Amino acid sequence: MKSADNIPERDFFITEDVVGLSRRLLGMKLISASEKGRCVGIITETEAYLGETDRASHAYGGRRTARTEVMYREGGVAYVYLCYGIHSLLNVVAGPGNKPYAILIRGLYLLQGLDVMAEKLQRKKEIDVLKDGIGPGKLTKAMGIDLSHNGIELFRPGRLWLEETGLTFNGGMVKIGPRVGVEYAGEDALLPYRFLVDNKTAAIEIKKAGLV
DNA sequence: AACAAGATTAACT
DNA sequence: GTTAATCTTGTTA
After folding, report:
1. Residue A74: exposed, middle, or buried by beta-carbon count in 10 A (0-12, 13-18, 19+)?
2. A66-76: pLDDT as tens digits
3. If you average pLDDT over residues A72-99, what whole number do you get?
4. Nucleotides of C under 7 A from a protein CB
5. Residue A62 CA to C13 C1' — how many Å?
6. A31 has which bridge partners?
7. A68, closest nucleotide (Cα–C1')
8. Is there contact between A138 and strand B, defined as CB under 7 Å from any strand atom?
9. Which of A1, A128, A161, A211 is least crowded, fewest Cβ atoms below 10 Å from its Cβ?
10. Domains of chain A
């Protein structure tokens, strides 16, 4: 169908409203392209990380190292890092630059490239679109995203990018709560920066929107 | 130079 | 419910 028309402007990511942007990422397409083929997922779970003032952020207190450097760029690039030595976690960098805002992608509804994903996940049978896109480490594996994707610009086609779908989840479908796995962050661990749409609900809406 | 911890997951008991 | 897998990073426990 369309090509560049559906890709958000860079301005979309250059905002101070990281929490709002996290909410708006729900329903957008995440697309990865490789020699194996193209993989597409609809974003169904995100978490906002508010940079220097957020105890849960890697850039808390203004920490600026080789790893966190990409977070200080203008919004719209990918921040991928290795967690527990095993999992590559994908974030969308946000903000006007010099502010290390990031949004962790925690869940997708897997839409296209299921055969490629099955291979990446080392499964013998078909993958489960309702489950295999859930979890920040699992979805990157399915989509073939690793540390080499760090810094990629997500507002134009390449190896990894985002596209608008026109799909929006209404308020009742989006669960909001505290972030996962950040108990060490004290009071910041309680902040309602996590946005989640149940994949079963997402599947219904995605069909309604004619994206299947 | 060495080490403890981590925005996790799958496979156990 | 518990634990192993696995390795980069930031700190020096």
Report:
1. middle
2. 999 999 999 99
3. 97
4. 5-11
5. 22
6. A40, A161
7. C9
8. yes
9. A1
10. 9-207 (3.10.300.10)
